[in-house]
Amino acid sequence: MSRIGKLPIPVPGGVTVQVASGKIQVKGPKGTLEQAVPQHVQLGIEPGRVVVTREGEHRQARANHGLARALVRNMVVGVSQGFEKKLEVVGVGYRAEIRGKQLVLNLGYSHPIEYSIPNGVSVTVDKAGAIFVSGIDRQQVGQAAADIRLFRRPDAYKGKGVRYSGEYIRLKAGKSAK
Questions:
Q1: CB-based contacts of 22, cutoff 8 Å, min separation 6
Q2: Every domain of the chain and the residues it spans
Q3: Domain 83-164: what homologous superfamily?
Q4: DSSP letters for 16-80
Q5: CATH code assigned to 9-80
Q6: What is the rounded CA–CA span in Å between residue 3 and residue 13?
């Protein structure tokens, strides 16, 4: 039995969960999310919780059991609390700013980088240069943060670039002086 899949998913007040024709829809105060239910898995809606069960003991059913539970949990948490990733811009002259629906990054290249903010994701920048990526869909938030980080990954020698908040960068030693 999947240790993740067998755990019931608590549904907070103000969140409704509906399953119909192979899709699950979760509505909450922050919005609505919809997802196809993976094969060989069934969702049972009980008062205040959702229970995920699998149809059999074959390999694909066992694999989808934990997956389905994690997807539904992420949907419930997303519509009730939301998700957020914080990125730090480290480097002399490195800056980030918002212009309309664009995130403009100056990361030491000869030109500024313009990143179009995807729908369903909001991006804000504070005075210290930290970038906050937030939204209700965990996958979209993580992908947007990863895309922003890829414009200038942290350097192995000086640590300059865009990094996740709390990310440890192991710096290499430079050339030894004579």
A1: 36, 37
A2: 9-80, 83-164
A3: Ribosomal protein L6 (3.90.930.12)
A4: EEEEETTEEEEEETTEEEEEEPPTTEEEEEETTEEEEEES-SSHHHHHHHHHHHHHHHHHHHHHH
A5: 3.90.930.12
A6: 26
Tens digit of pLDDT per residue, the chain (178 long)? 568 888 999 999 899 999 988 899 999 999 999 999 999 999 999 988 999 999 888 999 988 999 999 999 999 999 999 999 999 999 999 999 999 999 999 999 999 999 999 999 999 999 888 999 999 999 999 999 999 999 999 999 998 999 999 989 899 988 876 6
Question: What is the chain's alpha carbon radius of gyration, rounded to the nearest angstrom?
Answer: 21
Q: CB 53: neighbour CB atoms within 10 A?
A: 14
Which pair of structure tokens corresponds to residue 159?
Answer: 């640590």
Q: Which amino acid appears at position 42 of this protein? A: Q
